[in-house]
């Protein structure tokens, strides 16, 4: 199953020293993790230009597996996450074809 995942609204910083700490301890390790996951579980993704968020499509066998994947991301605890399960195009096309058959039968 595929999921559209957005992580947003992370911590800000007021001073250059705070920026260094947040970037070195939180977000650079997060980028490293996401790049590794691109080879394993992330189908596509990136950062909206000019926005402080992550957007990606992850492939997972279950909600629990995806939850573990998200919790493995270093910035997991400081971002707001939105996860949307995605239905495949083929699956939805089959569903709609079945619906057309039912409607024609009546």
Write the layout of secondary structure elements.
Elements: E1 2-8, H1 16-38, E2 42-46, E3 53-59, H2 63-71, E4 80-86, H3 89-105
What does it look like?
This protein is of the alpha+beta class and 106 residues long. The protein has one domain: Alpha-Beta Plaits (2-Layer Sandwich). Helices cover 46% and strands 25% of the residues. The protein contains three helices and four strands. The chain has helices at residues 16-38, 63-71, 89-105, and strands at 2-8, 42-46, 53-59, 80-86. The chain has a four-stranded antiparallel sheet with strand order 2-3-1-4, covered by helices on one side. Strand 2 (42-46) and strand 3 form a beta hairpin. The longest helix is centred in the first third of the chain and has 23 residues, at 16-38. The chain is elongated. The model has no long low-confidence stretch (mean pLDDT 94).
Which stretches are low in confidence, meaning pLDDT under 50 for 5 or more residues running? none
Helix coverage percent of residues?
A: 40-55%
Compute the number of strand runs: 4
The description of the largest β-sheet is:
4 strands, antiparallel
State the strand order across the main sheet: 2-3-1-4
> What proportion of the residues form beta strands (DSSP E)?
15-25%
In short:
This protein is of the alpha+beta class. The protein has helices spanning 16-38, 63-71, 89-105; strands at 2-8, 42-46, 53-59, 80-86.
């Amino acid at each position: 199953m595929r999921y559209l995942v957005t992580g947003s609204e992370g911590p800000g910083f007021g001073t250059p020293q705070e920026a260094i700490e947040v970037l070195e301890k939180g977000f650079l390790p997060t980028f490293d993790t996401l790049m590794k996951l691109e080879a394993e579980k992330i189908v596509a993704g990136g950062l909206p230009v000019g926005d402080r968020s992550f957007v990606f499509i992850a492939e997972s066998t279950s909600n629990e597996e995806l939850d573990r994947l998200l919790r493995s991301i270093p910035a997991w605890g400081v971002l707001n996450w939105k996860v949307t399960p995605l239905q495949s195009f083929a699956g939805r096309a089959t569903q709609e074809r079945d619906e057309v058959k039912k409607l024609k039968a009546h």
